[in-house]
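Check my protein:
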Amino acid sequence: MAFMLRRVYQGFSFRPDAIHVHPIIGIFVLGLQFLLLVIGRNFTILIPLLSLIVIENLLYGNTRGILSLIRAMTPLLLFLGILTLFFGGIIQAILVILRLMIGALSCSFFFAVTNPSDLARSLERCRIPTKFALLPALTLTLVPRVAKDAEETFDTLALRGEIHGFFLRWLPKAIAIFVASVLYRSEFLAQSLHFRGLGIQKRTHYRSVPIQKTDLLRLFVWLIMGYILLIIAF
């Protein structure tokens, strides 16, 4: 359990050493990826989509993140694959696995290469109210930390020797400790929002987030890819 949580944390962590993308373009491409994921009902769409997502993860320096996430998802993929195999056949089982991997790896890429502060700053420049602009940025920050808290909770109980026997004996205690740690973190979250000027009518920013040539190139590639896959789908 702790192993899986550690891998999830690594898979959804922001990587300062990776090549970063412009947040607005990142959101647009992520939405396009999920649109193709929804309409993709065969291998002709899903396999090229997954291949391109893996390639861009490798090019942007998120190799460690996707490997950690795949290792964490392996038990879930096997379970759902076997379950779907019994009820829908091998083709449906493979499609389910492909869909899960596409969704997970696309989110891992977005979390790894998108600076949460830049995301909030860019959304505000698009005239989105501050209280809504900060929500995606907080999500990028909190999801990895919540996974880290869950891992630390499990490790603490394991060191005390309380992780044994039927899971209903120790699961309520683990949930209680985890919820307490999340509530404790909420105090720091409130302070962070206060220092960021939440509630101030007019906020200022010390720097802008320019669109780089690599962002435009990535957007162009995904628009072409999306157009081709949409033609194939319909």
About this structure: Residues 85 and 91 are 8 Å apart (CA to CA). The chain has nine helices and no strands. The mean pLDDT is 80.
